[in-house]
Structures are given as C-alpha cells and as structure tokens.
Design a protein that fits this description.
Blueprint (H helix, E strand, L loop, with lengths): L1 H7 L8 H9 L5 H5 L1 H5 L3 H21 L7 E7 L5 H5 L5 E7 L3 H10 L7 E5 L12 E7 L7 H13 L1 E12 L9 E3 L4 E3 L2 H10 L2 E8 L10 E8 L1
Parallel strand pairs: 1-2, 1-4, 2-3, 4-5
Antiparallel strand pairs: 5-9, 6-7, 8-9
Length: 238
C-alpha cells in the first residue's frame, strides 16, 4: 500500500534539498566532480556545452541588442554555479561582472577565490540554495543550468517569479536543462542526487505560471546520443 501511495505522488514531491546537499558536498570541487561521468566518458562535453551556450546567448541578444551583441553586458548571475565553470567559460565573456549562487560552500569558495578574480569578473557569491535566494541586484542575464531539478515545481515557479523581478529592461532568463525521455511523458526522479528531470511540457507550464514569455528554445547540439537531450529556453518578462 505504501509503495502504491508513493507511486501516485508527483515526482517532485520526492525532492529533498538536504539529501541533495549531502550528495553534492561529497563531490570533489573539480570539473570532473561537476560533470561526473559525462566528462570522464566524453572529455569534449564541457567545450561543446560552453560553445553552445555562447551561441544561444548571441542569438537571444540579437533580438534586443541588434548589432550591439558583442558589447559586454553589465551584470549576469550564474545560478547553481558550482565551481564557476559556466561563469569562466561563458558568462564572463559576455558580462563585465558575474554573480554566483551556489549552496555548497566548498564549490562557492573555488568560484570566489580562483575563477577570474584577477580580472574582476566575479561579483557577489551567494552561498544559498536557489529556493532561498532573494536577488538584490538587477541583471541582464540570469543563467540556470543543470540545477533547477533540485527545486519542486512550486519552488521553481516562485524562484522564476523572483528572477523575473530581478531582470533589467530587456534582460533574459536562460534555462538549460536535461529533458525527460520517459515514454509516458512524465518527469523522472533521481534518488541518487534527489533531483527531477522535467519534460518540455512541464517547463512550458511553469514558465507560463511564472508570468514569463518563452521567446526562444532549442536543443543543444553535438552531445553524444547516449546522454539525455539538453534544451535551452530564452525567457523574458511580459
């Protein structure tokens, strides 16, 4: 009876941020730790990922900046930043200053002390979970990659609402996440790191509920077919 009851609950109801924090705290503060088996099996993954992210940012910026897309934006934020891989390899190339939000202290320490600090690119580092982060600055781009699965649907909706309020005029929220391939069209819960992989339809519903306009979406290309599909979403305030 208990198993039937558990099976009837939505996948995000099983998320435990405490369990997720325990999992990630045990992971080394290295690129291998951040990407795990993906980087060990496919060493080209990080390079392809960062190149795809820069290309997507260029595409969405053309919609608002036109010919000014090569100029640096004032401020961005890397949500679920880990050790700053995306900050260093992507956001720092398009933003003068990049803040970071990362709940694991040892990851935040690496981002704060070693990632581009000499160039003045790293701004404020918030050691807090996304569900508790309250933005105090305004941003040109709010980047969320491989981290939103640790939030329940309700937490994610409210997080996106807070992000929307923290956008500068013409600013972008970018979501880059794995896509569920469940044959029944359901989200997938991963007990190991206590996260959910959502469907494309679920993301669209949550964006709508948060009052966001989905301007552009596309799949990351160049990843091995053995991996889950990864999709970009470019979002703006209505």
């Amino acid at each position: 009876m208990a198993s039937l009851e558990s099976a009837s609950k939505p996948e995000d109801s099983h998320i435990s941020q405490a369990n997720a924090l325990t999992y990630w705290t045990a992971v080394p503060a290295t690129a291998n730790g951040m990407l795990g088996d993906m980087l060990r099996k496919y060493p080209q993954i990080s390079r392809i990922d960062l190149r795809g992210s820069l290309n997507f940012l260029a595409k969405v910026r053309r919609r608002t900046d036109g010919s000014m897309e090569r100029e640096l934006l004032d401020r961005g934020v890397d949500c679920g930043a880990g050790i700053g891989r995306v900050t260093a390899g992507c956001l720092s190339k398009v933003c003068r200053v990049v803040d970071a939000v990362e709940p694991v202290e040892k990851f935040a320490k690496v981002a704060r002390e070693t990632v581009l600090t000499g160039e003045g690119r790293v701004g404020d580092v918030y050691v807090v979970g996304l569900q508790d982060w309250m933005p105090v600055d305004k941003y040109d781009v709010i980047w969320n990659q491989w981290c939103l699965g640790h939030l329940t649907d309700e937490e994610l909706k409210h997080f996106l609402i807070r992000c929307k309020a923290a956008l500068k005029e013409g600013g972008w929220i970018v979501v880059k996440e794995n896509m569920s391939t469940n044959l029944e069209g359901k989200d997938i819960f991963d007990e190991e790191d206590s996260s959910v992989t959502r469907t494309h339809e679920k993301f669209q519903t949550l964006f709508h509920d948060a009052g966001l306009l989905l301007v552009k979406t596309e799949l990351q290309t160049g990843f091995p077919k053995q991996l889950l599909p990864v999709r970009f979403y470019g979002l703006q305030s209505h």
